[in-house]
Each structure stands twice: as structure tokens, then as C-alpha cells.
Amino acid sequence: MKATPRTTGRKLQRMRAELFARCPLCVECERLGRVTEATQRDHIKPLAEGGADDDSNVQALCDDCHEAKSRTESTRGRWRGRRRT
Ligand SMILES: [Zn+2]
Predict the structure, then answer these.
(1) 54: in domain
(2) How many angstroms separate the Cα of 62 from the Cα of each of 2, 34, 70, 77?
(3) What's the pLDDT tens digit per position in 8-20?
(4) 62 C-alpha vs ligand 1 centroid, how far in Å?
């Protein structure tokens, strides 16, 4: 699977601003009934797994939820490609 190139620079700044204008609160906290300001632009499906870098694949998260998600993804990454003998 090919990883999607990450958007950078001015275009990224604009995409971040648009996301937080649309979803100022962390969606994961909202699901749990908490109200937390979103600070992270998160890719629902990671770029490393071929996720798109556009509005259809991003969500607003707070630092804590973003970190928890990243940790899950890196664990999954370690397991990927490993074969049973
Ligand atoms: Zn959160």
C-alpha cells in the first residue's frame, strides 16, 4: 500500500483553520459527553495506510485523544506484515 504524501505549508494551515472553524471541539470527547477544545487535525485513516489528506478523512481531536489514537496505530503498524509460522 502506498502512503499518501502529507500536505504542508500554507495549504495545511488553511485546511487546519477550516477544520477547526467547522469542528472546534474534539469529536472523540464529544462522543463521550465531554467538551474539549480540538487542537489536532487527525486523519481518520492514517496517511501511512493510504488514507486521503482531505476533508473526507480528517477529524478534530484534542491532544489526549490524538495521542491515544496514534499509539494504537503504531502498535497496529508493528504487527502489520508479521506472519505466523
Ligand atoms: Zn478528546
Answers:
(1) yes
(2) 28, 11, 12, 22
(3) 999 999 999 999 9
(4) 4
Residue 60, Cα to own-chain centre: how many angstroms?
Answer: 8
Instruction: Compute, in angstroms, the gap from residue 48 CA to the centroid of ligand 1.
Output: 22
- Confidence (pLDDT) at 73: 86
Q: Which domain holds residue 31?
A: 9-76
Could you tell me if residue 16 is inside a domain?
A: yes
How far away, in angstroms, is 22 Cα from ligand 1 center? 16
Number of domains, the chain: 1
How much distance in Å is there from the Cα of 65 to the middle of ligand 1?
Answer: 4
Let me know if residue 4 belongs to a domain: no
Q: Residue 37's beta-bridge partner residues?
A: 25
What residue type is 79 in one-letter code?
Answer: W
User: What pLDDT was estimated at residue 2?
Assistant: 86
Please write the tens of the pLDDT for every residue from 31-85.
Answer: 999 999 999 999 999 999 999 999 999 999 999 999 999 999 888 776 655 565 5
Domain membership flag for residue 82: no
